Amino acid sequence: xxxxxxxxxxxxxxxxxxxxxxxxxxxxxxxxxxxxxxxxxxxxxxxxxxxxxxxxxxxxxxxxxxxxxxxxxxxxxxxxxxxxxxxxxxxxxxxxxxxxxxxxxxxxxxxxxxxxxxxxxxxxxxxxxxxxxxxxxxxxxxxxxxxxxxxxxxxxxxxxxxxxxxxxxxxxxxxxxxxxxxxxxxxxxxxxxxxxxxxxxxxxxxxxxxxxxxxxxxxxxxxxxxxxxxxxxxxxxxxxxxxxxxxxxxxxxxxxxxxxxxxxxxxxxxxxxxxxxxxxxxxxxxxxxxxxxxxxxxxxxxxxxxxxxxxxxxxxxxxxxxxxxxxxxxxxxxxxxxxxxxxxxxxxxxxxxxxxxxxxxxxxxxxxxxxxxxxxxxxxxxxxxxxxxxxxxxxxxxxxxxxxxxxxxxxxxxxxxxxxxxxxxxxxxxxxxxxxxxx
Length: 439
What we know:
CATH superfamily of the largest domain: Periplasmic binding protein-like II
Radius of gyration: 23 Å
Strand content: 5-15%
Helix content: 40-55%
Largest sheet: 5 strands, mixed
Structural class: alpha/beta
CATH architecture of the largest domain: 3-Layer(aba) Sandwich
Strand order of the largest sheet: 2-1-3-13-6
Oligomer: single chain
CATH topology of the largest domain: D-Maltodextrin-Binding Protein, domain 2
C-alpha cells in the first residue's frame, strides 16, 4: 500500500497534456447516483442498471494482501446493484500514471481509480477528472473529515473521495521525559510547547529534543504557503518564513534540536539510542524501534502530534477518482462512494491498519479503545488527530522539483549557515523558474 508522496516515474506534464487531449466531453449530465440519499454509497434503494454496466476499478499495490476483503466487497456491491459488474485491477505505485495515460488516450478509460492527493489534484485542475459535486449530496460530502475532503476541492469542484489515510503522532521516551521533570500524562499541545519540553529535556538530561528532516512541509505546518493560490508563483519568501527558519537555527545551536538533516533511518537511530526524547512520525515507526531497541520501545508512549501555527496536522491520503472519460459516471461515483462509506472504511482499516477519512468510522471502539500497548496508543492518538488533518500538496506537476529546491535552501541555511534572506530570495527565483518552465 503506497501512501508516500514520491513522484511518479513518468512526467506528469506529459501525462496530463495527453490526458487532456483524450478527455474532451463525455456527454455526462448532472445527476445523483441511485441510492445516494443519506451517507455516501450505502446502496440503499439502488435501481437496476437499464443495461449491463461494467466498471473497471484500479488500485495501487493492494493485491494479493487484501484480495479477500475486496472480493467480498465487490460481491456485496454487485449483489445490491443488479446489472453492474466490477472488474478489479491492481498496479504498482510507479506504474499507475502510465497505465492511466495509455488507457485514457486509447479511449478505454477506467471508471474508478485510486490516486494520491497530489496527482488527483493535478489531474482535477486540468479537467481530466469528474467534478463529483455534480453527483454527491451535501450529506455525502460532509461524511468525510473536512480537511481531508477539501484537499482535492479546487475552485469549488470536488475531484476525489478520500479513502484511507495516515497522520503522524508524537512518540515520547517516558524515562527521559520524567527525568527532565515533565509529566507525560499532560503532553505538549503545540509546537511551541514541544520546544519548551525539548529545551527542558536537553537541560536536565543532556539528550536533544528531537531530530527532523529538512523538508518543505515545515512551511505549511506554520501556515506559510509554498505557492500562491493560483499556483503561478512562489509565496514562501515572507517574514514569517524567515522567523520560522531563524528559530530552527537557534534551536539547533542550543542543541535542543539535532543539527542534522535526519532522514527516517537516522531518526530511528537517534531515538533508539536515547539521543533524543521525542519522535514525530507515523505508527510504522513502532515496528523499527521494537526491533532495534526493545527496552526503549517499552519506555515509549504515543500522544497526538502538537500543532504549529496553522493548527493543523498533515495527513497522507489515498483517494478514489472518476476519470472524465468514464463511460458510466453515475455508477462509478456510486461505487466509489460505496467503497469509502463509513462501514467499509472501518472494515478496511481493521484489516489494513490504516486510518479512515470518514467521520463516523472513528466512533468505532477499534479507534477509541486502547489495551495499553504502544501500537494501540498510536492508533488512538492518530484517530484523535483527524479532525485537524489535511493533505498538503504543492499542486503542480513540478511539485517534486519545488520540494527539492526548498529542501536544498533549508540545508544551506541550517547546515551551512547561509544567510536566511539571501537564500530565500535565491530559492524563490529557482521555484518561479521551475513553474514557468512547466507552464
